[in-house]
UniProtKB/TrEMBL annotation:
InterPro entries to which the protein is assigned, alphabetical: AAA+_ATPase (IPR003593), ABC_transporter-like_ATP-bd (IPR003439), ABC_Transporter_VariousFunc (IPR051782), P-loop_NTPase (IPR027417)
GO molecular function, a single term: ATP binding
PANTHER family attached to this UniProt entry: ABC TRANSPORTER ATP-BINDING PROTEIN ALBC-RELATED (PTHR42939:SF1)
Record bears the keyword ATP-binding: yes
Protein name: 3-dehydroquinate dehydratase
Source organism of this protein record: Brevibacillus fortis
Length: 241
């Protein structure tokens, strides 16, 4: 479960990237975070994960405050950033093992987990290669493997499908559904509205730091009393803001 209460973040003291945000993502749910470029999606995710501190407000993950109980809170989630171009000099296996060390995954179970993840993402033959030799999609997959190696309760994914081939994209969406159906939570941002429509239990639409809508796709249609596509509703909701 993720909870944000009156969270605000400003830059240069004037520009509010996130403005008094209240948001709850319960267990058992895939929550899609939508918004145009510069809407505040990545800033919100960076605050949830503790990379950036809010100016005001509280953020908790499974009841752990990201500011006052940082280590306990960070153990609750796996985070995939919006860029996979990290740790390029490491080999794939070295990176995933490094993440397993950080999260204190026991030696007796990590090998099996690595092989299971590598098998699902078709990465077994690439684990011995340096990440800098990977394609963008392969880098994305190794970042996902590193984020999930400790089997976190909460998944926080920033544009996780970008660059993935169709098979890997299907696999990740399948895993997201499995994770939520097991009573845990998935929070992910995406620009692909069709994916959000098909995959998410609820969506939040943000623009200029404010949540404009939060609910199911059915509720969004009822809000506009319309049967048009999610794309049309999204454009209608954000065009005047």
């Amino acid at each position: 479960m993720i909870e944000l209460v009156h969270v605000t973040k400003s830059y240069n003291g004037t520009i509010k990237a996130v403005d008094q945000m209240n948001l709850t993502v319960p267990n058992g749910e895939i929550f899609g975070f939508l918004g145009p470029n510069g809407a505040g999606k990545t800033t919100t995710i960076k605050m949830i994960t503790g990379i950036t501190r809010p100016d005001q407000g509280e953020i908790t993950i499974n009841g752990k405050n990201i500011r006052t109980e940082a280590l306990e809170a960070k153990r609750q989630f796996g985070y995939v950033p919006d860029s996979p171009d990290l740790f390029l000099r490491l080999k794939g296996l070295e990176y995933v093992s490094f993440m397993a060390d950080i999260y204190e995954v026991p030696q007796e179970v990590r090998g099996k987990r690595i092989l299971e993840l590598a098998d699902r993402f078709d990465m077994k033959n690439a684990l011995g290669d340096p990440i800098q030799s990977y394609s963008h999609g392969m880098r994305q997959k190794i970042m996902i493997m590193g984020a999930l190696i400790h089997q976190p309760e909460v998944w926080i994914l920033d544009e996780p499908l970008t660059g993935l081939d169709p098979k890997s994209s299907f696999t990740l969406k399948e895993m997201m559904r499995e994770h939520a159906d097991s009573g845990r939570s998935v929070f992910f941002s995406t620009h692909v509205l069709e994916v959000a429509e098909k995959l998410c239990d609820r969506v939040g639409i943000i623009n200029k730091g404010k949540i404009l809508f939060c609910g199911t796709f059915t509720e969004l249609r009822e809000h506009f009393q319309s049967e048009v596509s999610l794309e049309s509703l999204f454009l209608e909701l954000t065009k005047h803001e």
